[in-house]
Amino acid sequence: MENHSYRESEALRPTSLDKAPTYIDGLDHILKGGLPRGRTTVASGTVGSGKTLFGLEFLYRGALHGEAGIFVGFEESTQQLRENAATLGWDLENLEKQNRLVLLDGRIKPETVISGGFSLKGLLAVASGTQRKRNARRIVIDALEVALRLFDNPQTMRNELHALNTWLQEAGLSAVLTIRQARGVPSAYEEFFDSLADCLVRLDARVDAQITTRRLRVIKYRGSDFGRNEYLYTITMGGLRLAPISTVGLRHKPLGEHMTTGILRLDDMLGGGYRRGACILFAGLPGTGKTLLASTFVAQACGRGERVLYIGFEESEAAMLENVRSAGLDLKTHADAGCLSFLVHYPEAMGAEDH
To answer: Looking at the structure, do residues 238 and 134 belong to the same domain, yes or no?
Structure first.
C-alpha cells in the first residue's frame, strides 16, 4: 500500500514546462526561462510599443542559436524589415541565405478582398511547406489585425480565427502573434486572442509629463510562474532591453578599503575617506559646492590611474571642465588621457529607463 501511494505521488509530481528562450536582454528572467515551446504567445500593444521588434528579435536571436524561424508580416514588406533590422546591426539576409530565417510577405491587395477570394488558409499552407523544408521551430505572425479587418463578415472572421488556432496547435511551433491593442473597448479578435494565448504579453508606450516611457507586463502564462509586475523596457541600437529590479537583487559586495576624498580634513571626518564600493550622496542648495566635491573625488581617482565615468544632467562637458579649472582642478588632462569619460544629457531628453 505504501509503495502504491509512493508511485502515485511520483506520477503527480509537477514537471517544468519546456520553454524557448527569447534571448532578449532581461526578458527571459521575467518569463522564468522563455516563451512556451510549441505553444502560442500573443504580444499586444499600442502603436510604437515595439511589437514587431519583439517578434522579430525572438526569431533573430533564436536563429543565431540554431532554431530556424518564419516571419509572416501583414504590415511591412520583407525589404523594409531587412532595412529596419540592419539599423540594429541584424543581418537578416545572411540568415535567410543560411536557411535559418524565412520572411513571408502576407500583405493583401485590396482588390483581392473585394473579389471575395481572400483566406488565411493559402498563407498557412505556404507556412506549413516552409516549416517542413527549413525544419523551422519558431514562427511570428505580425500585425494580424490588419488582415482580420479585411473580413466584412464576422462569421468568416471567426472561421478564419478558428482555422488559425487549429493550424498553430497542429504545427507545434513556438508561435508569437502580434496584434495592435484597440483603444477603449477591446475588439472581438482581441478577446479571442486573449483566450487563445498560452502566454499573453502587453507592451505599452505611454506619455507622462511629455516624456514617453515603455512598460511590459505578462498578463498570463499557462503552466508557468512569471514576473507579474510592469517592467520598464527600452528600444536600443541592439534591440529590446529590460531591466527588472529582481535581476539586481541584494548581491552587492561589502564595502572595501578607504580612499582619499582629496580633502584632508574631510578624510579625517570620515575616518580615512570614502569606502570603496560605497554610494556617496552630496545634498545641498545651489552654490554649496556639490560639483566641486565630486570633481575633487574624480581628480583623486584619475590620479591613482583609475578610470572614471562622469554622468551629468546640468552642464556640458566643456562647461564643467572650465568651471572646475577656475577652482584649481585640472580634469581636462585626465579627459585627454582617456582616464575620464563624460555622459551628459538634459534630464528631459528621455525617460528614466533610457537614461
So the answer is: yes
Q: What is the pTM of this model?
A: 0.77
- Same domain for 205 and 153? yes
Expressed as residue numbers, the domain containing 207 is 14-245
The question of whether 83 is a catalytic residue gets the answer no
Catalytic residue among 83, 191, 230, 314: 314
Residue 120: closest CA among 71, 159, 78, 169: 159
Q: Are 241 and 234 in contact (CB under 8 A)?
A: yes
Residue 3 counted as domain residue: no
Note whether 225 and 270 are same-domain residues: no
If we measure between CA atoms, which residue out of 301, 241, 302 comes closest to residue 274? Answer: 301
Annotated catalytic residue, options 75, 76, 145, 160: 75
pLDDT tens, residue by residue, 13-72: 556 899 999 999 999 999 999 999 999 999 999 888 999 999 999 999 999 999 999 999
For the chain, the domain total comes to: 2
Q: DSSP letter at 327?
A: T
Residues 334, 256: Cα–Cα separation, whole Å: 25
| Three cell numbers written together for 235 | 528600444
How many angstroms from the chain centroid is the CA of residue 288?
Answer: 41
